[in-house]
Specification:
The chain has 13 helices and 18 strands. The chain is an alpha+beta fold. It has 2 domains: 2-185 and 305-408, Zn peptidases (Aminopeptidase, 3-Layer(aba) Sandwich), CATH 3.40.630; 188-302, Alpha-Beta Plaits (2-Layer Sandwich), CATH 3.30.70. The chain is elongated and about 80 Å long. The two termini are 13 Å apart. Bound molecules: zinc ion (2 copies). One zinc ion is lined by residues 106, 142, 380-381.
C-alpha cells in the first residue's frame, strides 16, 4: 500500500513547508490545528476539535479489531530561526508579556505532516485492515502539559479503549533511518524551585543575620553529591542547578534565596530517590544554618518517563525491519523528555516511541568522518535545526503506517 505514497507526497511536503514557515508557541497552535481537520474528514475520520485548547482528534473505525492511537505534537519554540531555508520562519509571537521569535526548532512540523499523511494512506487502504485508528494532534509538548490538557478536557471519553499507543520524533540522525528501543528511551524530567529563608541585616553585621546566600551556596555544593554519591554508577541521572538568585546590593544581607534546578532520570525508583535526597539536603542545610522558617520546595515542568513496552516495541521493530531493511536499527537512549506517555498511562495501554532521522545523510557522513557529529549536526532546539524534506517525510509517514498496520493488518 505504500506504493500509494507517491500521489500524496506533494501535499504532505507542501503542508510541512507551510507549517515550518508558520510555527506557533505552546497552547497557541490555532493555525496549525486548523490545517488538520479537513485532511482528516477527507480521509473519512470522525473529527473532534478544540480538545485541551487546540488539540484535534480523528477516529477512523473499520470493523472489529484493536484500537491503535498515533500521536503528533504541534507546538514550536521561542527560537530565532537561522537555517537560511527558503521557507524559514520569520514569525514572532507573544510569550507572557514579551515578543519572541518562533521556530519549529524541534521538528513538530514533521510530526504533524507525517501523521496527516499516514492517516490519508491508511484511509485509502481500508480494505487491508480492520480495527480502529485514533490520531491525536496534541498541543503544548514543549511545556509538558498538552497531553494532560487533552486528557483533562475529556479525551478518554472521545477515544474510548485504546490497545496500543505510538509516537515518533525526528532526531539528528541520518534521514531515512528509523530507530526503536525497548525500555527507558527518554528521561523523566523534574524542575524544582526552592526558596530558603534567612534573616536580613547590614552587610557589616553578620552576627545579626542568617545569611541565605551562604545557605544557598552550601545547598548547591552539597547537591553535587546526590548523583555522585547516592546513584549507582550505571544508572544515568543528571541534577543541574540552573538558577540561583538572592540579594540586590553588596552591603545588604538578604532575607531569602531562590534556587531552580532540573533533574533527569531513567527509572522511577531513581527519580524518587533523587527528589527525596534533594529535599533531605535542603532541609538539613536550612537547619544547619539556623534558618528561621521551613524552606519551600515546588515542583514544576514535570515530564513522565518515556518507557517503551517490550512487547509493543518488539512487534514494531520487526515490522520496521521487514519494511525498512537495514535502515531500521536501535535508537540510543535520549536525554530529552516528552509528555507523550501521559496518554498511554491514562488509557492503561502499552506504548512505544521511536525516532526517525532528519539530517542530510551525506552531511551526517561527513561529520562522522571528521569525528564532529556533536559539533556539526544541528540538534533539536537549535536555531540551525533543519530536517531535509526527503527522505525525512516519506520515512515518517511510512513508519506510522507500518507501525499501525503491525496491529491493524488483516
Ligand atoms: Zn522539543
Ligand atoms: Zn520535540
Amino acid at each position: 500500500m505504500l506504493g500509494g505514497l507517491c500521489p500524496q507526497r506533494g501535499w504532505i511536503e507542501d503542508l510541512y513547508r507551510d507549517l515550518h514557515a508558520h510555527p506557533e508557541l505552546s497552547h497557541q497552535e490555532h493555525r496549525t490545528a486548523a490545517l488538520v481537520p479537513d485532511r482528516l474528514r477527507d480521509a473519512g475520520c470522525e473529527v473532534h476539535e478544540g480538545i485541551g485548547g487546540t488539540g484535534v482528534v480523528g477516529v477512523l473505525a473499520k470493523g472489529p479489531g484493536p484500537t491503535v492511537l498515533l500521536r503528533a505534537d504541534m507546538d514550536a519554540l521561542p527560537v530565532r530561526e537561522e537555517t537560511g531555508l527558503p521557507y524559514a520562519s520569520t514569525v514572532t509571537a507573544t510569550d507572557g508579556d514579551t515578543e519572541v521569535p518562533v521556530m519549529h526548532a524541534c521538528g513538530h512540523d514533521v510530526h504533524v505532516a507525517c501523521l496527516a499523511g499516514a492517516t490519508t494512506l491508511l484511509a485509502q487502504a481500508r480494505d487491508q485492515w480492520s480495527g480502529r485508528l485514533v490520531v491525536v494532534f496534541q498541543p503544548a509538548e514543549e511545556t509538558a502539559d498538552g497531553a494532560r490538557a487533552m486528557l483533562d478536557d475529556g479525551l478518554a471519553g472521545i477515544v474510548g479503549d485504546v490497545d496500543v499507543a505510538m509516537a515518533q520524533h525526528v532526531l539528528p540522525m541520518p534521514a531515512g533511518r528509523v530507530g526503536t528501543r525497548t525500555g527507558a528511551v527518554l528521561s523523566a524530567a523534574d524542575s524544582m524551585r526552592i526558596t530558603v529563608h534567612g534573616r536580613g541585616a547590614h552587610g557589616s553585621m553578620p552576627q545579626a543575620a542568617v545569611d541565605p546566600v551562604v545557605l544557598a551556596a552550601m545547598i548547591v555544593v552539597r547537591l553535587q553529591t546526590v548523583v555522585a554519591r547516592e546513584v549507582a554508577p550505571g544508572d544515568p541521572a543528571v541534577l543541574t542547578v540552573g538558577s540561583i538568585a538572592a540579594g540586590s546590593k553588596s552591603n545588604v544581607i538578604p532575607d531569602h534565596a531562590v534556587l531552580q534546578l532540573n533533574v533527569r532520570t531513567y527509572d522511577e525508583a531513581t527519580r524518587a530517590a533523587v527528589l527525596a535526597a534533594i529535599e533531605r539536603i535542603v532541609r538539613a542545610e536550612c537547619q544547619a544554618s539556623g534558618s528561621p522558617a521551613e524552606p519551600e520546595l515546588e515542583l514544576f515542568d514535570r515530564y513522565p518517563l518515556t518507557e517503551n513496552d517490550a512487547g509493543v516495541t518488539g512487534r514494531v521493530a520487526e515490522a520496521f525491519a521487514a519494511f525498512f531493511g537495514d535502515r531500521a536499527g536501535e535508537l540510543p537512549q535520549q536525554s530529552a523528555s516528552e509528555d507523550f506517555s501521559d496518554l498511554p498511562r491514562a488509557f492503561g495501554a502499552p506504548s512505544t516511541y521511536w525516532g526517525i532521522g532528519g539530517t542530510d545523510p551525506d552531511a551526517y557522513a561527513r561529520a562522522q568522518e571528521a569525528g564532529r557529529v556533536a559539533q556539526d549536526v544541528p540538534v533539536n532546539h537549535s536555531a540551525g535545526f533543519a530536517p531535509v524534506v526527503q527522505p525525512t517525510l516519506d520515512t515518517g509517514v511510512e513508519a506510522l503506517v507500518v507501525g499501525a498496520l503491525a496491529w491493524l493488518h488483516r
